[in-house]
Amino acid sequence: NQVLINVLTFQSFNGKHLQLAQHTTDMARQAFVSAAPVFSSTENITATRGPACPQRKLDTSFGGDINARKFFSGKVSATAGKVAEEIRFEINAAADKLRIGVIGCGRIGQVHAETIAYRVPQAQLTMVSDVFVESAQKLATKFGVKGVQDHTDILNSKDVDAVFICSPSDTHAQIIKDASAAGKHIFCEKPISLQLDVIDQCAAAVNTAGVKMFVAFQRRFDPNFRRLRQAVETGEVGEVFSVHTISRDPNPPPIAYVKQSGGIFLDMAIHDFDMLRFLSMSEPVEVYAKGSVRVDQAIGEAGDYDTAMSVVTFENGAVGTIDNCRKATYGYDQRAEVFGSKSCVMIANNTANNMQTWGPEGTKGQLPFGFFMDRYIEAYRAEVQAFVESVVNDQPVPTSILDGRKATLMALAAKQSAALGRPVKVSEVDTM
Fold first, then answer.
1. 431 or 350: which carries more pLDDT confidence?
2. Residue 163 pLDDT
3. Distant-in-sequence, close-in-space partners of 347: CB < 8 Å, separation ≥ 6
4. How far apart are CA 371 and CA 301, in angstroms?
5. In the prediction, which pLDDT does 362 show?
6. What is the pLDDT of residues 173-224, one digit of tens each?
7. Residue 372: its pLDDT value, please?
């Protein structure tokens, strides 16, 4: 005999356990009763989630041991004497999934597509697009979804509830406006725009349409940076005196990217400016920045710096400092410190493992990750999860278009400061 169980209600987050619909629970228990002799322990029951997920034991009671963050589709079989019974169950949450289209199939688009497809239970990848149609078709084939060249096909699709904007930076603003008009919720990679008035236009479009928009500052969702924020929120640090971040890339970007990115303050340090706000829990008043060219003269010829320091003064009196460089010979350097009246808390670089070698010549450890996608892979998953939960549960997004605007404002003030050689009030730059 076979019993097919479809669970159409599947929502629970923040550590709460999955609660099955009552009639479904009764059906499941009745089915298990028929095989009670062999279901005396969970050793007989396993399930899998996706091709890369190891087997996990399930509780035969269908109670609180099934974690709501997992999506299982599996097969249970048991044998009692000469009688064999098979009970097949499926947790089918399709009705509750947020259907997502990814616009832009470059590096970050590929990361988000895989996260949506495999790592966030309430998300469903339905379409991808890229101006290079071969890239879209390749990614679409990998995940068994539709691939198109024109992103407006995604915006017009009835099979898409939300879009991930992972296209080139200069396309973001217009796609935000178009997606808002189409009634799609929006997850957008930074920057929204390099111009504050354009960001304000995007905000107006989002608000008028009544859709949600999430700006992808993934460091806010990294376990290390979140622990620093917790130390501030709980008073562990006390009154915040200073915040310091270090962000150094393993290698500089192509010159073509430098020319269109807005420069080191807008494409690189913008994450640090957001992190200073996040950790100081205050708003910026003034920015003083200095830049130099020490790594590649071609970057200077393109009108940018490859090495920079920024000092930010906040309303609560805290001072933030940012240390940026386009090249660090030892890898992707991502460190931070918050110093306050009670303590100093800091995070070090993540490494692939924490092995150390001790010998007569001294000690040595592991180098930091060499690529930002390796360093922040868990943060990417967590930010996608946060966006999906905000939409499904109709809650405010944790990283809003206003957060994106304020980080851009700080970056523009830094760029102006470096050009003028003096501190710049953010009020000098703000257009509002």
1. 350
2. 98
3. 224, 225, 227, 228, 335, 336, 337
4. 26
5. 95
6. 999 999 999 999 999 999 999 999 999 999 999 999 999 999 999 999 999 9
7. 87
Which pLDDT band, with edges at 50, 70 and 90, does 432 fall under? low
* Residue 104 pLDDT greater than 80, yes or no: yes
Q: What is the 3-state secondary structure (H, E, C) of the chain?
A: CCCCCECCCCCCCCCCECCCCHHHHHHHHHHHHCCHHHCCCHHHCEECCCCCCCCEECCCCCCCCCECCCCCEEEEEEEECCEEEEEEEECCCHHHCEEEEEECCCHHHHHHHHHHHHCCCCEEEEEEECCCHHHHHHHHHHHCCEEECCCHHHHCCCCCCEEEECCCHHHHHHHHHHHHHCCCEEEEECCCCCCHHHHHHHHHHHHHHCCCEEEECHHHHCHHHHHHHHHHHCCCCCCEEEEEEEEECCCCCCHHHHHHHCCHHHHCCHHHHHHHHHHHCCCEEEEEEEEECCCCHHHHHCCCCCEEEEEEEECCCCEEEEEEECCCCCCCEEEEEEEECCCEEEECCCECCCCCEEECCEEECCCECCCHHHHCHHHHHHHHHHHHHHHHCCCCCCCCHHHHHHHHHHHHHHHHHHHHCCCEEHHHHCCC
Confidence check: pLDDT of 315 > 90: yes
Asked if 151 and 175 touch (Cβ cutoff 8 Å), the reply is yes
pLDDT band at 312 (very low <50, low <70, confident <90, very high): very high
Give the whole-angstrom CA distance, residue 235 versus residue 306: 36
pLDDT reported for residue 115: 97
pLDDT value at residue 71: 33
Structure tokens at 172: 């973001």
Q: Which of 240, 233, 427, 423 is nearest to 317 (CA)?
A: 240
Please say whether the dihedral angle defined by the alpha carbons of residues 213, 272, 301 and 329, taken in this order, is positive or negative: negative
Q: What are phi and psi of 351, to 5 degrees?
A: -130, 165
Residue 193 in tokens: 């725009």
Cα separation values, 351 from 145, 148, 325, 375, 380, Å? 34, 38, 20, 8, 17
* Beta-carbon count within 10 A of 167 CB: 23
Residue 253's identity, in one-letter code, is P
